[in-house]
Every structure is written in C-alpha cells, then in structure tokens.
Amino acid sequence: FGLPFLIFLAWELLAKRVHSSRQLEQDLNLTIYGEIVQLPMRRRQATARSNRSLDNSLQVFRESFDTLSTNLSLSPAMQEVRVVAVASAVTSEGKTSVAAELARRLAENTHAKVLLIDADMRSPDIHRLFRIAPEPGLVGVLSNEVSFEQAVDTGCGDQLHVLPAGRLTSSPVALLGNGNLTGLLDKARSEYRYVVIDTPPILPAGESLTLSRAADVTLLCVKWESSRIGDVRLARERLTLAGTEHIGVVVNGVP
User: In the chain, which ranges are continuous DSSP H helix?
Assistant: First the structure.
C-alpha cells in the first residue's frame, strides 16, 4: 500500500520544483526582477468579509506588477531597455498573463506608449484577453499582407496598443526568419517607449529564441511549485546559446 506513495515522493524529489526565489538565484545564478502573487479567486458564496479579503488580495496582486514595472522602468541597468520578451520554459507557467498585465502597468505607471505583441502564433491568447479581433495581426505584417499601422489595435486606449498574433498559415520559424521582424521592431521602437512580446514556450518552440535574441531583455516566467529546475536551467542554456544577452526571472504564482 505504501509503495505508490514512495514512488510519488521519489518523483517529486527528482523533479525538484521551484519553491523559492533564492533557489533560482543560487542554483542558476539568475536575477529576480519580480515576484507575482497568486491571482485571487472569488468564492461562489461571497460574504462581506470574503469580498474585503478579495479586494486586499487583488491590491497585492496589482502592486506586485507595479514593483516589476518599476524595476524595469527605473533601474539604472534597464534605462536603455525598449523591447521586453516574456518567455517560459514550457506551457502553463503564466507568461501570457504576465506579459499582458506588465504592458498594462507600464502604460499606466509611466504614462508612455506601450505596444503588446502576441508572438505565440501557434497558440495565441492575447486577443481573447483584450477581446479584439485576432487578424490580420503579426502574421499579416510578417507576410507583407498588411502594414504595421493596419495590424495594430488601438482600441485599448492612447497608451496601450496591441498587435495580436493573427492566423498562422505557414511555419512561424519561416515567418520570423524572412527578415521582416527586424523592420517591425524598428518601427515599434520608433513609436513606443516599451514593446512587450509574449513569446512561445522555449523548449517546445524554437522560434522563441529568435524573438528573445531580438529583444533588449528576456523575462523568463517561472511558476511557483510547478516549474522544474531542470526545465528552467535548460531554457536558460538555450537562450544563452542563441545569443540572448540579458535574462531575468519573474516568479509567478507566489502565495
């Protein structure tokens, strides 16, 4: 009867999941740019007390993104940063939510123009979060079907604009390798103070390395007690081999 529990315990020890920021700093020598607390959930049977607790938890959640955006906008080492790629080793580590909320907070806190790009063309989600049309998007620009101005959605306000992914019709590696990405980012740099890119997960999708190399800094999103140290280490090694110079970590889902 105890054998399954022993096997499960051995598997958890071998998996070595992330359970602290210091663990990432010591084991992988990575800089922590921010810790994002768990997004609180509303109870089905809400009371006045639970609603107050929810409001407080939401405030802490927003403040954790304020801290992250402040680190990026005010840190002396980050003064020249214009393009931020948000990546993760594998799926379901919260990179899309981090990218979307970071873009929002940068726009609100700095009062500067921010562009959010959904570059996860295989599995796009940004258009659902912002309830905008997915096309023509990034695919349309890279394919020379539409101009940059025609693809950017400006309905979210004067400070925050969104470039959705579009509908993928060919290999994303080929689209990003046709030379149009450089021109697109040059155009974005000239019109926006910050460009936040939601990239595909690094280990299953090779095109994420191209996007990270084109960015000024890459934030590797790691999920508390879910991400495995081995996956994070492998993702960091691939980013380094691809020529990504500045790599930081955002720990997501901290209790």
Answer: 3-15, 21-28, 48-74, 95-110, 126-130, 137-142, 148-151, 172-176, 180-191, 207-214, 229-241
**Minimal CA–CA distance to 118: which of 168, 64, 178?**
168
The token pair that represents 215 in the structure block: 């960015």
Place of tokens 């989600």: 125
- What is the tens place of the pLDDT at every residue in 180-211? 999 999 999 999 999 999 999 999 988 899 99
Closest among 6, 64, 79, 3 to 32, alpha carbons compared: 64
Tokens linked to 65: 């993104």
Torsions phi, psi for 143 (to 5 deg): -90, 0
- Alpha-carbon gap, residue 1 to 64, rounded angstroms: 44
The pTM score is: 0.86
Q: What six digits make up the tokens of 1?
A: 């009867």
Distance separating alpha carbons of residues 14 and 182, to the nearest angstrom: 41
**Which residues fall within 8 angstroms of residue 212, CB to CB, at 6 or more apart?**
85, 87, 199, 202, 218, 239, 242, 244
What does the block give as tokens for 223? 């999920």
Q: Rg (Cα) of the chain, in Å, rounded?
A: 19
Question: What is the Cα–Cα distance from 214 to 188, expressed in whole angstroms?
Answer: 12
Contact of 18 with 222, CB cutoff 8 Å? yes
Distance from C-alpha of 84 to C-alpha of 68, rounded to nearest angstrom:
12
Contact between residue 132 and residue 162 where contact means Cβ atoms under 8 Å apart: yes
